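Re: the multi-chain job from yesterday

Posting the exact lines I submitted so nobody has to dig through the queue logs.
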Amino acid sequence: MPFGNTHNQLKLKFSSEQEYPDLSKHNNHMAKVLTPDLYEQLRSKQTPSGFTLDDVIQTGVDNPGHPFIMTVGCVAGDEETYEVFKDLLDPVIQDRHGGYKPTDKHKTDLNSANLKGGDDLDPNYVLSSRVRTGRSIRGFCLPPHCSRGERRAVENLSIEALDALTGDLKGKYYALKNMTDAEQQQLIDDHFLFDKPVSPLLLASGMARDWPDARGIWHNDNKTFLVWVNEEDHLRVISMQKGGNMKEVFTRFCTGLTKIESLFKERGHAFMWNEHLGYVLTCPSNLGTGLRAGVHVKLPNMSKHAKFEEVLKRLRLQKRGTGGVDTAAVGGVFDISNADRLGFSEVELVQMVVDGVKLLVEMEKKLEKGQSIEDLVPAQK
Amino acid sequence: MSNSFRRLVSGRNTMALLASLGAGTMAGGLLLHDNSSLAAETKTKLYPPSADFPDLRKHNNCMASALTPAVYAKLRDKLTPNNWTLDQCIQTGVDNPGHPFIKTVGCVAGDEESYEVFAELFDPVIKDRHNGYNPRTMTHPTDLDASKITNGVFDDNYVLSSRVRTGRSIRGLSLPPACSRAERREVERVVVTALAGLKGELTGRYYSLGDMTEKEQQQLIDDHFLFDKPVSPLLTCAFMARDWPDARGIWHNNEKTFLIWVNEEDHTRVISMEKGGNMKRVFERFCSGLKQVEHLIQERGWEFMWNERLGYILTCPSNLGTGLRAGVHVRLPKLSKDPRFSKILDNLRLQKRGTGGVDTAATGDTFDISNLDRLGKSEVELVQLVVDGVNYLIECEKKLEKGQDIKVPAPLVQFKK
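And the result, structure tokens for all chains:
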């Protein structure tokens, strides 16, 4: 929340106990970690841009969570949040990212040549392939905390950099507040348009302020490479196409990202990155690679099999409905993607998806023929 | 390239780069200030007010009408004593462009001082919303002497229920958009302690939103007393729903005729109501209850936010002055279908709402009729206005029933300037 930094000083006149949030009914990572003692320890701190502990946790206080789904419950307002509030965020990160320790190092690998296979997923089953990630521009506050001036500066820099892309990455920017009805409809039909967040998880963190100012969508003329500006992160970068050629999708993804990064560097700006957390993004759940590589795949038989969940778990994959997070599957078609973000490189994660989806399709085919899949069930990755 | 070196060369500011190399250390976020997020003070200088001025071209609210780039430039870097800023006051108006037909206010106060520190915005907003009331030159009359009300008992065949509500803020504690959890809990403590001292027909009980049993909750719903977490973006964008349901609750007397909401849109909302048309009695209880609560908090060293320019200080500028809405649920089957209905209401300074409250539609022929104005007229004046107006509406209804014609009354005079 964009409270002035000195507001936090005034809260200090009340005792820590008086300010400590009521987390008795909460089930999220923040609530598990934030004891009264930890609150007392951290409440007087703030980042150089004025982001405070209460700003970090507001979304987790306002959204107690769900008994079955463990949300994160905290966000970063700038790069330094992860340093200044490490005593809260390190355990949250450890819990969320499979035991990732404060001393662990994260490997970045955006060399798509290192991916084995991935160009031959059966298009009779794999309807589309997609890879997304996020990037934050160093020196600017993140969506929960940025001022309008900063958000606009991020937009201007992004447009400048993206306009310099050439070849099959050449494209156009559509500002959310300026688009014509025809442009808007086209973007909806292409499934490119993002809308003002409605999820209370996002709203409570202050990310939707000033909507739709400085928000927009850039995509290449071929409609296979897409960048969201100032939605939940500074940039969300998406490579996608119909069919099962994940290798091609990932290659374009890596090429595009690398080009964009160098275009920003030419203009004196780096992406937020460090060797412990990888790419720094707003939500701790997206640290590391920030990468979700997934397919829309037909698994009508496999999805009804008793071992479906177990197989996914062992393959380190997760399922979603085809509307994205928090939606249900329609007609036996599932969105299958990597469950991990941090502690594995980009290549490693996409490899898991490619290998895992290949196996799932094999299993689907066997079940179609009435055969057993017991001998195909994998070991835990 | 090692990571920390890479960070240094990617920075924009070579002065900081040279300084940090000269200092011989590469550690610490503070040293890499200009490569990292800008310190708040630096940010203020790097982004002039023009860079932050909101895009209000598609907006239709009082704040957007009043907030020029010049006013924004003057006020952007000011702070109230509670460190509340202009951007925080206007966030709700920036996020909610408004409706072509309904002009919302578009700004809120974070504390009592907001109205002073940001007077250059709030004064024109107040003028716009309250029919030209000028806080620099006018004073607002407060009058809670219910004995002055005449003809305050309506025909029960038409009036189904009568209600008066207002709000009160506890001086010295920040308002709902700005308050910390500790402040909000303090508001709750001060108010609930005071209410425990009420006696006689005002004896009652407090139900904390977070602690109530399912049975209590259902009873409060059945009594139409329960308020829920705000869903209106007008309120949520003003930061009012933070930490819900912490320190929120409902107090009501045993008779269920006097009700107080704690920490919803204001520190307190005070409601007196009963079935039937005895508005006089409703207002008597209202005034008596308010005075007793005020006395009880004063005994403990607290007081309500009030001054003679703005009357009672509340979160939304639309509720300044009396913060009072006196209304009835009244059946007007014939009059409501008459084409002159709206004009009659306008001239009587009344507004109609559906029986679900603001932004609802009327069901059947029953309307919620209440005063339009809040500031510039006293409580007694406004309630009398409602009394006279509703009596007139009932007269019209009766005439139409008998097949007689009705007259549109002359428009009422605004406050004395």
